[in-house]
Amino acid sequence: MPKNARSGVSGLDVGAFLICAACAVGLVFLIAARSSSELVFVLPIDRTIDVHSAQALRVRFADFTTGEDIGASLRKRGGEDLPLSIDIDKTRKLVTVKPMSPLEGAAEYTLCLSRATKRSVFRQMIEDWLPSASCTSFTTRAVAAGIHQDGAAGLIVVGTDNTYAAYYEEILKAEGLNLFDSVALDRFDAEMLKRYSTVVLASSSLPSAQVPSLVEWVRAGGSLVMMRPDNDLLALMCLEKDGTSLHQAYLRATPGVEAVKAFASHPLQIHGEIDRLRPRTACEARPVGGGGVSEQAPLTVAALSEGAASPLLAPAIAMLHVGQGTLTAFAYDLARSIAYTRQGNPDWAGQDRDGQAPRRPNDLFYPDHLDRELIGVPQADEHQRLFANITLSATAMPLPRFWYLPGDRRAAIVMVGDDHATRNATATLFAKLVELSPPNCSLKRWACLRATALLTPRTEIAPALVKAYHDQGFEFGVHVDTRCKNLETKALEGLLRRQMSEFRARYPFLGRQQVQRFHCIVWNGWTESAEVEVEAGIRFDMNYYNWPPAWLDGRPGFMTGSALPMPFVTEDGTVLDIYQAATQLVNEDQVPHVFGVRTMLDRATGADQFFGAFVTHYDFSDDYADILVDEARRHNVPLISAEQLLVWVDGRNRSRFADLDWQDGVLRFSQRLAKGAEDAFVHLPLRATAGQLLGVRCNGQSIAFRVQEIKGLPVATFPAHAGDCTATYGGGGAS
């Protein structure tokens, strides 16, 4: 009997067996390697619908291998592969895939990622046997028709190439300019221009056939504001891109330009891709007739700096007067920059970057997304105010706007405390606020001292006492407790719903809870936690919170660059029905208490004009609540609940100016005030092309106004009145 016959394996079999054993070892090794370096799709998730057609497709790898190449393909269902650009960041294990042109709306696409490594022939055989690509399919969003209302003064042209185009409406509403319509780029035509004095082009390009009509409209007095325009549009201003771009830079306003002179004292960070612009060496723009657009050089309204003090000799914002109108070009996408400034770096989502568990919103900023030297400046708010000033100064028609806070106030403290099962701290504070409130004070006018109490599930307050304070205008809600642990998004949603339900069962007379702050401010993703809150009925989030103390280094300020609520926006440009309201006044951030509160209120009410509604955190572990009360009274600033601010912002955003008409020095407009905005104030430019404001009448009655200067521009201020108004200007041209 041959050797090994008893085992039933021949000598040839032994060799094959050894080879197969080696195959198995290699296979196990290769599978393990693939397991540790598998493709993890970040955006979009497989079978996602409603994906923005210009959204960057981002893919995260668990690991990279030296010498590894990444390939990508993207095709429409039934079509061919589309041209792509691929950016690989091996440090962050992130691959960003961008279609070279916007995708079609309401179409299905498949994205495949592959990875290839130079290997031996043997390993290549195994590699060939294993799947080498991972794919995800998604459907793009249908093109929105837009919003059209009677007599709007401005138009936002929403391009499918700009993911954050829809966010411009929120920016303009936040600035009180509730007089803009919006339209999709493919539905925009020259006939629309007759109805508007200002157009914000949230697209890098326009069909060439529309450009001549647009230029004629500008010549006749229109104001066109362009966001990251392409070279064809930049040629109208004798500018061009130099072929390079930055992903972060600073803006410095030009001191001599009236519209932005109030912003010249400090730089502002810009996030997102930024074009470097330069003059065209041979300006050949001839869009109309035989002449150029203008023989003037464009004005640098604000310049770019690579560092806070390293000028690049390139404009961040340029302006050119053409005939009676104005062309303005931003070298960056303002909406994207605002979103990244407020919500942090989306590429850092899901990371515990400060090394202090759990994951919190501050991890989206730590350590250098926010320049800590500028933490004392509300950079997002300042960007928006600068944009508003440019918009107001560039248009021939004087535009009315609603002020940020009711009663023309410059600041408010949103008094929110977290009660972690104290014996009676909340009731004691509320009793003090009632005692300090004026007799027969008006809740709607924020004349009563009020607050919000977020109670942990273990906090015991008698229902009768809660009802008594609730009936006086105080707000109660559950302080959702994850025991300071991050949870998967689905588990977080379940916990939020359960604790809210249990709280409502204890206090059934309370209305639906709409404001929320997690204990330990745990956070998922870039906006995942906000999306979970929306599903649970929360509409006012306060989780963005100045932290950690060592990073802040005793400096009060604005981690998110803002002291005003605005809706969250997702990475694909979806505006969520929930406001982000950062918590700036924190008792445990190791900023000296009196110094921190006083500094923020002084900057809001003083010469800096850093207006805002400042959200607080206190937990009755010290005297911070008393300090907040004392400083609010010292600065004559109202103390309000989060719910009061939510009602106001909703009402202000739903209010609108309509039926605007500007002829012979007379501006006619109507004011439509929504519930909650009864105490709104209107600001009108004090000067226009026809001269200075002479008088205002609403509903047939003369309206007294107060003159003041806001961020460098003189304005007339008066209470809003629902109905029809006229503002008369005269006495010569504007100075």
From TrEMBL:
Top-level taxon of origin: Bacteria
SUPFAM superfamilies named in the record: Class I glutamine amidotransferase-like (SSF52317)
Key words of the record = Membrane, Transmembrane, Transmembrane helix
Transmembrane residue ranges? 12-33
The molecule here is called: NodB homology domain-containing protein
